[in-house]
Structure formats: C-alpha cells, structure tokens
Design a protein that fits this description.
Number of helices: 9
Oligomer: single chain
Number of domains: 1
C-alpha cells in the first residue's frame, strides 16, 4: 500500500511519513524542498526497506495539483494526507494581500482540488485533511488562516458524510491539532507559540491512530479536546477577545 503526504519535508508531515514507514507503508512524499525529501527517502528506505517515491511540486498552483495526481495515480494510494499549508500572524490590514492569496490557494484550493481528484480515482481508502484548532473559532490576528482551516474542517466533515452514506469505501477525515512544535511559527512570522506546543511525533502518532479508527474529527491532546468542548458554551464576543490577546503575544 502507498500513502501520499504533501508537506512531507518537515513538521507533522515528516513525522507521519516516519511512523508510516515503521509500519512498512510505501510512501509518496511531496514538497518543494527536494533536498529534504531525498534525505528523508534515503533514511526511510535504508532503515525500513520500503519504496519511497519523491515528488517535487509547489502544489499551491492548480496545474501542479493535476500534474501530481496524474503522476501518482498509477501507484493507487490508499491514504492521502493533505498536510501542506501555512499561516501568517498579524493585523489583517498589514499582511500583504499576495501572502494571503497564496495561503488561500494552498490551504483551501489545493486541498480541495486534491481531495476531488483522489476521490475520483481511489477505489478505497482514507483522505486526511489537516485543519487546525483554529477552525473552531474566529481568530483575530490570524484571521485568514483560521478561516481557511474552518473551510477545511467543514468541507471534510460534509464530504466524509457523503462518502459514508454512499458506501464508497472512501473516508475523508480532518486532523485538528493545536499548537505543535514545527516550522509553522517561523513561516507565520510569529515570535513564539501562543500556547505550549505538542511535539510533532506525538501529533503524528495520534493522527495515525485516528486514521486507523476512521475518526471523522481527530483532535490531538486531551487539553485540546477539552478546549473544543468548552468553546461550544462561550459567547463569540468572549472568544474574540481571548483569541486576540493570545495571538497578540505572538507578534
């Protein structure tokens, strides 16, 4: 069996790749940084004796999503992990529009496109779309990112329900991690994590367990599960004030 992972050169994507390799799953690793992918490929093939296919693509571009799908569909991946994405921390009126458009293209349009393409070509399997705890609340100073992840969560839950009702053999799950110790903060231009971060390998372990159990919504960590439950009962005005205060510390 092959698993395809976008954003596989670092962070959660890389850790999921390592842990799937331990389970003898063949991998298709996708990212822009080919040097990191080749290094990871060498490590995993030597250590676990699996087949690792490396694909260098900037999937923020629609044409590259279609090209990637064409190049890998012959491998018949039964697990597709749409992990690639990024955020920007700061006031909406100060973040360059180009950065936000690029974010929406990658976090939303590319994920949407790859989900559509693989649902069309997979006979069975799981698509895991990486959302965020930010999907559950409007987040000042992280407004566009949070909105993009709200799309991912809502989209994934709805498509998963469709697939279950139609008994297609395909599931579409959503991973909603809280803060994780990855390169996200550097890319987002945040000075620090808003809350203590989970290690990426632990997040990956929980994600894989959730995939195995086919949980529609996977929230890594007990504290994040509690937070998501509590958010249901807090007025939006209060959530906005708390979110602003938390994110303001990261600027």
């Amino acid at each position: 069996m092959y698993a395809l992972i976008t954003g596989a050169s670092s962070g959660i994507g890389r850790e999921i790749a390592v842990q799937l390799a331990e389970k003898k799953t063949n991998l298709i690793l996708v990212a822009r940084r080919i040097d990191r992918l080749n290094e990871l490929k060498e490590t995993l093939t030597i250590k676990y004796g699996i087949d690792v296919v490396v694909k260098q693509f900037d999937i923020s571009k629609q044409e590259n999503c279609h090209a990637l799908h064409e190049e890998v569909k012959s491998y018949r991946p039964e697990l597709v992990i749409n992990n690639a994405g990024f955020g920007r921390v700061g006031p909406f009126d100060q973040i360059p529009l180009e950065d936000e458009i690029n974010m929406l293209e990658l976090n939303v349009l590319s994920l949407h496109t790859l989900t559509k393409l693989f649902i069309g070509s997979m006979e069975k399997g799981v698509i895991l779309n990486v959302a965020s705890m930010a999907a559950f609340l409007p987040t000042p100073l992280l407004a566009t990112y949070a909105a993009s992840k709200a799309y991912v969560l809502s989209f994934s839950r709805a498509i998963d329900y469709e697939q279950r009702k139609e008994k297609t053999g395909i599931r579409v799950l959503a991973l909603c991690p809280g803060p994780v110790r990855t390169e996200f903060g550097i890319v987002a231009k945040a000075s620090k994590l808003s809350l203590p971060g989970m290690e990426a390998d632990r997040c990956a372990r929980i994600a894989i367990k959730g995939i195995t159990r086919k949980k529609p919504k996977i929230i890594p960590g007990f504290s994040m599960k509690v937070l998501q439950f509590i958010l249901r009962f807090i007025p939006t005005s209060v959530i906005l004030a708390i979110s602003y205060k938390v994110q303001n510390k990261r600027k």
